[in-house]
Structure to design on (364 residues):
């Protein structure tokens, strides 16, 4: 975050996990499901997505405490074919439902070459990449998407109708790191605006619009108006209007809602995660076997070649390295596993508060 550095402490992965697991189990989540929920949160921190890591623990705590999230897995398969399934999440933890959905997609891909699972009536599931990464363990291509609460303004609009609806696709390689695309379909996630707001800084123009639909650099006004649903919001990838292709980011966000929302029958657009007592979030998972098309080793060899071509191509002035998606996160993960995970002190304090309420001591 360069000039946006916040106060941090460094915590060992195991300590962070122990605390999160104790919180979930204290709230009635079975040990196995507690571990899944924790793994998704901590993986986000390990990969450098702080906005979706343990910073989310207090929100999940509130949802569980209020009964808006069911602590035990209530998900059910509603409809199934050899290659597809529709799951109703039963308002259970999004991470638990998401993992179940991707496990089923993988099982089907191993039997038929493709598995597609659509999920309705779920919750915020964290980083999309957690689920697509699961496919790599089986040498499959993985896809994971989710719809989310409306924060994104459609091109030429002035109110948020779509979520930051992330897309993740992973593909295995051989000697190179696998391709791990994991991105919101908005210019930035809400968390970035929150960081600028906390530091009372102006954000770059091109991230968000105000209630009139005009670009603004004032994060506080945008966040305040979004929370009161007064208008304005975050821009889709590509930014404002058509000049820098905002309409394409808008199309990608809508594509995610078609696959996660309309296909599963969950809430869509304005209805997603708006009523905290009934969030009705939708997800989409796909696993695809490359070996159904070409020998797996040929596919992986060509992934390596493509990755090397990109990285060996000429660098822009002032740059000394080109990355392939996922590479930076792997490097960060290795560093954090060696040296500990940086966690903002404000996040630690909010976790400590939850711990105090539940009688779970926080030891960092
Ligand atoms: N559950 C939800 O509702 C929800 C909503 C939005 C986002 N998210 C999650 O938030 C996370 C952050 O999304 P984001 O859009 O801010 O991601 P980002 O902009 O940090 O990264 C996007 C992608 O670009 C890659 N990347 C980064 N720098 C690169 C470079 N120089 N060259 C090549 N590739 C590079 C990353 O590996 C990643 O795959 C994701 O994990 C996403 O799943 C979740």
């Amino acid at each position: 975050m360069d000039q946006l550095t916040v106060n941090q402490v460094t915590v060992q992965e195991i300590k962070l996990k122990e605390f999160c697991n104790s919180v979930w189990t204290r709230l009635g989540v079975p040990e196995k499901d507690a571990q899944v929920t924790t793994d998704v949160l901590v993986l986000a921190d390990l990969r450098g997505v702080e906005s979706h890591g343990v910073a989310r623990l207090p929100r999940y705590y509130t949802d569980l405490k209020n009964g808006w999230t069911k602590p035990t897995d209530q998900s059910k398969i509603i409809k199934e074919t050899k290659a597809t399934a529709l799951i109703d999440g039963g308002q259970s933890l999004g991470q638990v439902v998401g993992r179940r959905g991707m496990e089923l997609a993988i099982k089907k891909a191993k039997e038929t070459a493709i598995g597609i699972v659509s999920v309705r009536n779920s919750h915020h599931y964290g980083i999309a990449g957690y689920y697509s990464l699961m496919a790599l363990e089986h040498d499959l291509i993985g896809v994971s998407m989710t719809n989310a609460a409306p924060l994104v303004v459609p091109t030429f609009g002035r109110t948020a109708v779509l979520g930051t609806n992330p897309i993740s696709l992973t593909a295995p390689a051989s000697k190179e790191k696998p391709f791990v695309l994991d991105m919101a379909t908005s210019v930035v996630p809400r968390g970035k605006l929150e960081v600028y707001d906390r530091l009372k800084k102006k954000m770059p123009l091109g991230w968000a619009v105000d209630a009139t639909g005009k670009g603004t650099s004032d994060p506080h006004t945008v966040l305040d108006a979004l929370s009161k649903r007064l208008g304005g919001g975050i821009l889709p990838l590509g930014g404002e209007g058509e000049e820098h292709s905002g309409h394409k980011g808008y199309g990608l966000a809508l594509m995610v809602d078609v696959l996660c929302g309309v296909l599963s029958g969950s809430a869509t657009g304005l209805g997603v995660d708006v009523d905290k007592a009934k969030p009705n979030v939708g997800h989409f998972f796909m696993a695809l076997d490359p070996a159904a098309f070409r020998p797996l080793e040929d596919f992986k060899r060509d992934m390596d070649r493509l990755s090397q071509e990109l990285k060996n191509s000429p660098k822009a002035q002032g740059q000394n390295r080109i990355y392939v998606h996922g590479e930076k996160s792997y490097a960060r993960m290795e560093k954090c596993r060696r040296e500990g995970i940086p966690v903002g002190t404000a996040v630690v304090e909010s976790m400590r508060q939850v711990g105090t309420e539940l009688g779970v001591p926080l030891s960092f």
About this structure: The first strand starts at residue 8 and ends at 11.
